[in-house]
Amino acid sequence: MFFLPSVTVFSFSLFLDVSLLPAERLPVVYLENTFLAILLIALLQFAYRFPTTEESQKLERWLIFFLSCAYACWEAGLAIWRFQLLSQGLVEISARLYGLSAHF
Known about the structure:
Number of strands: 0
Largest sheet: none
Strand content: under 5%
């Protein structure tokens, strides 16, 4: 249901990432992982419902839904934190921030 809009938004963010100057594209870079996490929710739910919904996978489908939503919230929280730092004139893009999400 929301797979196509999430792919469109993520693709547009990738387009802006390569089209804008470095200072202008920073907010887009901060939001890309959040858009990708939302796309992950849509893709996983599509995989569980295609071609039909299996009742035997209902618990698994809900568990995957809540875990992927938690990941999307984690990425949104990181984006908000980075925007707060940016408002103070600081830029933080570091691999150490992805310690937890790299294992997801």
